Amino acid sequence: MLLTILAVLAVQPRFADVTAPIGLGADAIPETVARLCLVDVDGDGLPDAVIDRHRVFLNRADASGPGGRRFVEVPADRTGLDVPAAGTAAVFADLDNDGRVDAVTAEFIDAHNPKWVDHGRRTRWQRGRGDGTFEEAVLLPVPARPTIAIAVGDVNRDGRLDLWFGNTYVQYGASVEAETNDLLLSDGAEGWRRACLPEDNNPFTPERDLGGRPTFGTLIASLSELPEPVLLELSYGRRWNRLWMRLPDGGWTDVAPALRFDGDDIRHGRHPEWLKERARTDPRFDREDEPPFRANGNTFDASIGDVDNDGRFDVLVTEITHAWAGESADRSRILLAAAPTSDRSAPGPGALAPLPYELLPAARLALDRVPAPDDLPAARSWNQGDLFGTLADLDNDGWLDVLLSSGDYPDDQRLRVYRGRPAPAPLVDATSALAIDHDGSQQISLGDIDGDGDLDVLVGQTFNRFTAEQREGRSPHPKLLLNEASMSNRALELRLEGDGRRVNRQGIGAIVRATLPDGTARIAQMVGPGGHAGKQNDAVIHIGLGSAPSVSAIDVSWPGDAPPTVIEGPVAPGRYVVRMDGTLVDLNRAGSPEPEQP
Known about the structure:
mainly beta
């Protein structure tokens, strides 16, 4: 009997903490790390790790390591990357279409803060050499601002990647006025030019809040049935979110109100009655109710995916909120693309037609962890510090799951996994069942580090606002969690390769449709780096197939006017490179691909 129990436990789906044996333990990384990512810097088809924005660890074969891999650091004096200042954000993408990822570093220039000390560095990019090292920095033509977020994507579909920088308050705590954001369009060899958005020309007014808003996250993505990619502007300070869409005349319009992405429907701004009652005896709790422009969310991050498998892209947004803020403070939620329910689907100024759907929350997909009203004192002191979130099929069953990273507060803020299931089933919190125990969770990044077909997780950690008791005997440390949760389910992993002329080399912005033998289909989008504070995942399309033995067809819609690529199956589960001419490079047998020359 004991042997039977042990055998069952041995095959339970879980995420294994392999941080130390794979080369990322405290001996290699003794410092606290909040920011990190998985990205293939050497082009071998497997993701490497960039820790704290400047330390590069290459993913190498090692039979003695977990999954047959080990991370080996590139000497710090060779990478060319600077030790980051507080607030620095960094992402990695192939900006010059040479087949090697480059580095983009955005500096947080807090010029209006009298206590800020200028370190002299400014927002820049560096060409990658394809070996984990980077060339001399080239300054980018953006104003010196307090930048928090970077997104990468081909905004105008010209085959070159553009940059979308999110900036925050002019001076935090001094007023609610915020800097405008900066969109840089690539002109190739000619450099970069800053594009003007409507917020540039509008001063702040509380009535309409048309100017800059404190932006903690940016993303460039396509939403189903919209003719152009959109710029997601994720606002802090309870401000409305924006979705900028380019118009045929070259102008821009904010379609967030029409799509119901600007905020949830509770907009009265009232604080809870218990807070007002307490303020009568304790003036620290005396707060005026919020005006409409500050009755929304503290939105940090977003992720795009087809949660309900209906062929439309849905959106996950993550929020920080608190008990004292009341019900009008937006909470983390999944917004499903659904038929319009109101006249809010009317377009913004300059748009040509009503939008075909709205983004609506679904009760079955709730992510709340709010205590019951009679659970005191927790019901009046809770926080939800949802800093990062990603939609991904972690168990390869064909349904997207939610990876939610919560931190910065002491009340059980941690990394959580919610398993997605077909409607009408709700999400299931599978965190404990998957053996995940990571509080104070910070930036997350997904990639298949061992090439076994499922997505592994790299995650940072801090103990911000933890009590002395919570900190005692512990030190925060990033973790690499090896995915052993997919069991017998299989997946398709595709690296896309554009020609570097009509389509950017990484295929960012492409949409992939995989048709299964039963006629059903899965869609996925190659979204570039973006979200909060330089979040990015490895640049791979990952589609869980469940028990399907193969894929009948793969259809890639490239960004821009390039014709689609259709690959007829059957295609077995596994790892491949898809090229625009229909070539399918089998990484399961061929090893690392040889990229085509631009």
